[in-house]
Amino acid sequence: MSYLAWLAVLSLAAVIAERLRPARRGQRVLRPELHTDLVYVLFNGHVWAVLTGGITGACALWTRSALDAVGLLPARGILDGVPFAAQLVAFLVASDFLQWCVHRLLHRVPFLWAFHKVHHSARAMDWAVNFRFHWMELVVYRSLLYVPLLWLGGDGAPLFAVAVFATAWGHLNHANVALDLGPLAYVFNSPRMHLWHHDASSEGGVAKNFGIVLSAWDWIFRTAYWPRERAPERIGYPDDQEMPSGALRQELFPLTRVPRAEHHSP
Description:
By secondary structure, this protein is mainly alpha-helical.
């Protein structure tokens, strides 16, 4: 199946899971701003990828040629010829760690935080918030992930499978679903833990729980904060009233603001 088909299937599965086992029973299905987040799902999940596909491909070819010209591109990738399952695990761990690093940059660098605010402006959490992000974030992630993944080599099929799995787990992390992973919570991210990443207060640090699929990085690097007995009083960010409503106005918002340096992770 294509990525768009997988996105549709995973989104439907998340909707069903939220209805069968909701974590916050008082949250309405047709919550405020749901229509805005569905626009983001369509745009970021399909339209933006198509619009930028040619540019991304051209940049990738140029980067590969430039690295090869200066002798920095190995003749054989680390994962070339490795079995599918091993490539799958390697791509998942490597790409997730790189995304964890990029996610921290989105919070620590004022210029990048101005764009990341769009994601954190959500005031209610469900699966659709997974795709509520400014298009600039895709540019940042792809730019910083491409070269390391280029060194790994390998095949496209396991990399595609990891992308689908990451989308599924991202939907889960943002979903209004009651889920207890038990001891696996020290390895994998979860809706309850990720909810604290969207905490609007400074409890436990202004920014915490940067994990995408794996929570292990937060436990290892001591950026984890999760009082399991309760949820945050409010999600968002301290000045989220500044964020306009509507996807188009939110896309333009970071371009009209000078990033402020007071937001930083501990």
